[in-house]
Design goal:
Blueprint: H1 4-21, H2 38-71
Length: 77
């Protein structure tokens, strides 16, 4: 069953893949940050962003599962 929460979960999990597979958006050297070319710091930033998005997706999934279990009288799916 597709719910708004599950759509948000899917977007949180798909966003890093889209960002990394769209190489043309970050295949450049400028702007540099503390001497590091954009290509490298963009990818490293996505490591942190991916971690945060995965944690958000996991928390939302847990909350969704608890809500579904309480609606079904305690039976988990």
């Amino acid at each position: 069953m597709v719910t708004p929460v599950r759509v948000v979960i899917a977007l949180c999990l798909v966003a890093p893949f889209v960002a990394m597979l769209w190489v043309g958006s970050y295949a450049k050297t400028d702007p540099t940050w503390i001497g590091i070319p954009f290509f490298y710091w963009y990818q490293m930033a996505w490591v942190l962003i991916s971690t945060a998005l995965t944690m958000v997706a996991y928390r939302l999934w847990q909350r969704d599962q608890r809500a579904r279990a309480s609606r079904k009288g305690g039976a988990a799916e």
